Amino acid sequence: MKKNSILFVIALLLLLGCNSNKKNEFYSYIENKCIFENSDTCYIDLKDFFKVDYDTMYVFGEYIPLEGVRLILGMQDYKSSNALMPKGFLVEDSYNKIILLKDHNVVFDEDIKNPYFYDDGIEVRKIGAFDGEPITHYAKIFTTSKFMIKKKRNGTGYYYIYRNVLSDGSLIPYETIE
After folding, report:
1. Strand order across the 41-45 sheet
2. How many other C-beta atoms lie within 10 A of the C-beta of residue 166?
């Protein structure tokens, strides 16, 4: 029993460490690309960070079920890159599922603990079912890989705000697609 508990704790630490590495990599990427001495704003291209060419990024929030991802992507044959959590959820608390598509094919699929891209982007809603009950599934779509990063002070620390930049240089408007 004690051996099983130790193995469980080790496995849990490995899983948590793997997912938070991408968050640390993302913040390191921003801090290496952006010089915030003269300005609190910087522009980055996420194709450089993800190291993959894509044309559309989907961001799914925590606790989305597999069926919701399939409905929003329009891919009933989509298979997740991770195991389902209890109750059939795909993404755990405080994580986002990032799915990158190129010509309607998945080229990247990973869960990232924050950064929280979910406030920007084009909102997509699809009605589906979960546990036999109707439910509205949500995601955000980003149609370009360019982002404006704004560094904001928070007491003694700071945080970043991410805004998607359209090909004409304007910020992506907040709108909903149903």
Report:
1. 41-45, 146-154, 157-164
2. 12
